[in-house]
Design brief:
Elements lengths: L1 H48 L2 H13 L1 H16 L9 H15 L22
């Protein structure tokens, strides 16, 4: 009797583990699908907002500096959602937007030198 109960518990536990593993793979698959839909939506909005040369410039920027390209894309998508764009943005318009974004995200760096005054030769005379 103990063997039968033990075998039933094992089968039940195995089915629970298989169900959990199936749920985890479904959640991962749904997450990938959601990410793909978001990427497709971003590309569609950017294709509507930018002309061909501006899109090419943005893609080149994405290769070199992906964080800046992402910031510019977010800015363009936000402007498009609020209806602040009159038409398609040309390459020169994109350059202006890039300069604005660069000025906003520009980091100021300062370097200070702390010189130590240990055994300064001016303080003592070695005659």
């Amino acid at each position: 009797m103990a063997d039968e109960e033990l075998e039933a518990i094992r089968r039940q536990r195995m089915s629970e583990l298989q169900a959990k593993q199936g749920d985890a793979s479904n959640n991962q698959q749904q997450g990938e699908e959601a990410k793909q839909r978001e990427t497709d939506m971003r590309n569609t909005i950017l294709a509507q907002v930018l002309d061909q040369s501006a899109r090419a410039r943005l893609n080149n920027l994405a290769l070199v500096k992906p964080d800046k390209a992402n910031a510019v894309e977010n800015y363009l998508i936000q402007m498009a959602r609020f209806g602040k764009l009159g038409g398609k943005i040309s390459e020169s318009g994109l350059i202006d937007i890039l300069e604005k974004v660069c000025q906003q995200t520009e980091k100021k760096m300062t370097v200070t030198f702390n010189r130590r005054r240990v055994m300064d030769s001016d303080d003592e005379d070695d005659d």
